[in-house]
Specification:
By secondary structure, the protein is of the alpha/beta class. The chain has helices spanning 37-45, 70-83, 95-104, 132-141, 145-156, 161-167, 172-178, 183-190, 220-232, 250-262, and strands spanning 2-5, 11-18, 22-26, 50-54, 89-93, 112-115, 210-215, 236-241.
Length: 263
């Protein structure tokens, strides 16, 4: 395990693989090295890039320092970019895409790619309830981690109760509960864009070439959010991967990222 230290003293664990231009991959909610779609993606990309995957604070082998703020996670990304030589391409998936967008406001990122940030921009799915954050925080304060994960999956992600009921009897549910305390971190990154309203031009500083990607089999609400993001970013293109869902397959995504970053 390789570690570095973020600006507030938090230990960050990371893995470096491959050779070529530096590329930092940012996980979505509750994912970390060894339990992330970015693990397989890093292997696909290592032939063309020096790929950095890391455990976001509060997960895996990284530490955590309170109180949480989005700015601390941006500092974490900045620390990885510094480890990568001071400049790096950046890719984020799901709520990690929202973090990548925040980081690209100020960091030396020549190009940015994101996959399906969970923005709700219209009425194709219900908006996240107004009291969601309050109830989520209460569940975690009471030590009800399973309840917090269920709330996130149903009210945050939009999965059906039946789907989540099946998930609760699967072995990976215990892993999700172990990192349930980090759900509010991801919520803070996306909640401002989950009210069913059109996206504002919220990232005017992100002027680097950007690629907003979705899956052709993903829900309409998620695809609409990605298309909207591509329109409001100053220099972005929109790409759909046929037959892919939110759980995107690395062999389908890696060639698109390679083409974009190396073009």
């Amino acid at each position: 395990m390789t570690t570095t230290t973020s600006a507030d003293g938090t230990k960050l664990a990371y893995t470096r693989a491959g050779s070529g231009p530096a590329l930092v991959l940012v996980d979505g909610a509750m994912c970390y090295r060894g339990s992330s779609p970015n693990d397989a993606l890093a292997k696909e990309l290592a032939a063309h890039f020096t790929v950095y995957t890391y455990d976001r604070r509060g997960r895996g082998e990284s530490g955590d320092t309170g109180p949480y703020a989005v700015e601390r996670e941006v500092e974490d990304v900045a620390t990885l970019v510094k480890e990568a030589g001071g400049e790096a391409f950046l890719f984020g998936i799901s709520s990690g895409a929202a973090l990548a967008l925040e980081a690209a406001r100020s960091l030396p990122v020549p190009k940015l790619a994101v996959y399906e940030p969970p923005f709700i921009v219209d009425a194709t799915r219900p908006r996240v309830p107004a009291d969601y954050v309050t109830r989520l925080d209460q569940a975690l304060r009471e030590g009800k981690r399973g309840k917090a994960v269920k709330m996130f999956m149903t009210e945050g992600v939009g999965l059906s109760g039946a789907t989540v009921a099946i998930m609760r009897i699967m072995p990976f549910w215990a892993k999700l509960k172990r990192v349930a305390h980090t759900i509010p971190y991801d919520t803070a990154l996306v909640i401002g864009h989950q009210a069913g309203e059109p996206l504002p031009a919220a990232w005017p500083e992100v002027t680097v070439p950007a690629l907003a990607i979705d899956g052709g089999r993903s829900p309409d609400w998620m695809r609409n959010g990605v298309a909207s993001l591509a329109k409001v970013l100053p220099s972005a293109e929109y790409r759909t991967l046929p037959d892919q869902t939110h759980i995107v397959k690395a062999p389908a995504l890696a060639p698109v990222l390679t083409e974009f970053f190396l073009a």
